[in-house]
Amino acid sequence: MHNLAIALHKKGYIVTGSDDEIFEPSRSRLASYGLLPEKTGWYPDNITKDLDAIILGMHAKGDNPELIKAKELGIKVMSFPEYLYDQTKNKKRIVVAGSHGKTTTTAMIMHVLKYNNVKFDYMVGSIIDGYETMVGLSDDATLAVLEGDEYLTSPIDRRPKFHLYIPDIAVINGIAWDHMNVFPTFENYVKQFRIFIDTISEGGRLIYFEEDEEVHKLVEDTNRDLVKIPYKTHGYFQNKSGFFAATHNRMIPLKIFGEHNMQNLSAAREACFAAGISEDQFYSAIPSFEGTSKRLQKLGETENGVVYLDFAHAPSKVKATLDAVAERYSNYRIVACLELHTYSSLNRDFLPNYKDTLMNAWKGYIYFNPHALAIKKLEPVSKNEILGYFGEGNLKVFDSSEALFKEIMQLKSKNLVYLMMSSGDFDGFNLTALAEELLKQD
Fold it and tell me: If you classify domain 2-75 with CATH, what class do you get?
């Protein structure tokens, strides 16, 4: 929401906002543009007939006093995705959906377009170098690239966000159950992607990962008049000098690595082709792509080892990330640290899905904060229960981040890869400082 506020401010709109909690970095970034509210909280007097529209975020519930006032005055209320569609409805929209990899795929497409001087609007779910905001809107671009999140639109609109974008070019890169608090069964979760396919504009393009069984099944079942474009994992190899994408006549050095990123690269390639980018333009741009924040983000590297931070939290994401690191650093020992932070990951009914996801780790550490269980109104779960759900491996469970990192600090050794995985922040622990300390050699 704060990215959208800044983007609209830069476009020349008058923007105001309210919230009862504003955290960093949102607070500092809003303040730098003069957009930070004078005080936190909800104040109905802020809502007047002078407003053209109100954009409702997920934090404001249905009984919000400002929202009630807006309805009384008949002011137009829009959700974040509704507004993005409204701003891009006259443009060709690329929407990237899937349970994992959509942020990286979206960022790859943006990188290639920018490299080739193609103007576009965008919305992406992570900070990317070279972009001041995660939302960009303009009057002159004819193309928009949007990350299609399947989570709910707003407290008063329970549709998934990606149902509202009406893509001309749609990407589905994989389906693995997530967000069980709003999609209580796997079947219900898969249904959302079926609906997404039904929202694609008539005659539009559907780019899909044909090696994913669920995605392939959905595409086969649809009778929509669409151009269906399957893709597979891009060819690749690695050696001592680095990681390379490969075609029959090209060898492309990359700054990213891992099989899952090669799936993302294939998806981005097809989407760029559909947007008019040539093969030469794509492969000229992609070597300089460095990834996004918290997606295998390198926090530090020395001759002693390397530390990565990744957003992985759902079982399929955890396994894919760990497998990628294990393949890239085959001569290293991996110390994997996973924070269980989301509603699904802390739910006893969902936890069995994590079985064997940390098998490739030399040592695996699992962290959860008991307070998070209470906040999410979930039943308490013991350390031993969690160990049982994860299955075999050299694993330990912690309910104190301080105790966890104290133990990890004792592992100081050469040829270690430390992999921190979380959609949270390990209770605010300074992971950059930790990385620096871990890579010191006494």
Answer: alpha beta
pTM above 0.70, yes or no: yes
| List of residues 6+ apart from 354 with CB closer than 8 A | 315, 318, 345, 389, 390
* SS3 of 323-370: HHHHHHCCCCEEEEEEEECCCCCCCCCCHHHHCCCCCCCCEEEEEECH
CA–CA separation, 139 and 53 (whole Å): 19
Query: Over 90: is that where the pLDDT of 127 sits?
Result: no
- Specify the domain boundaries for CATH 3.90.190.20 within the chain: 297-438
Q: 190 to each of 194, 216, 238, how far by Cα in Å? A: 7, 12, 35
Helix (H, G, I), strand (E, B) or coil at 117: coil
Tokens of 90: 């006259």
Separation between Cα atoms, residue 211 and residue 272, nearest integer Å: 20
Over residues 269-288, mean pLDDT: 98
Question: Mean pLDDT across the chain, nearest whole number?
Answer: 94
- Element at 414 (helix H, strand E): none
Query: Nearest Cα to 318, choosing from 278, 362, 358?
Result: 358
The per-residue pLDDT for range 43-77, each reduced to its tens digit, is: 999 999 999 999 998 878 889 999 999 999 999 99
CATH 3.90.190.20: does it fit domain 297-438? yes
Residue 442's pLDDT is what? 57
Query: In the block, which residue shows the tokens 């301080």?
Result: 402
Between CA 329 and CA 298 the distance in angstroms is 13
| CATH 3.40.50 boundaries in the chain | 2-75
Beta carbons of 192 and 96 less than 8 angstroms apart: no
Q: What are the b/e assignments for 161-199, b being 16+ CB within 10 Å?
A: bbbbbebbbbbbbbbbbbbbebbeeeeebbebbeebbeb
Give the H or E element holding residue 251: strand 251-254
| Domain 82-288, second-level architecture | 3-Layer(aba) Sandwich (3.40)
**Helix (H), strand (E) at residue 170:** strand 169-172
Q: What is the C-alpha to C-alpha distance for residues 220 and 194, in angstroms, rounded to an integer?
A: 11
Cα(24)–Cα(156) distance, integer angstroms: 26
Q: At what angle do helices 401-409 and 431-438 cross, to 10 degrees?
A: 20
Distances (CA, A) of 310 to 115, 253, 373, 421: 25, 22, 22, 5
CB 415 within 8 A of CB 331: yes
CA distance readout (Å), 19 to 15, 22, 25, 78, 343: 14, 7, 15, 16, 23
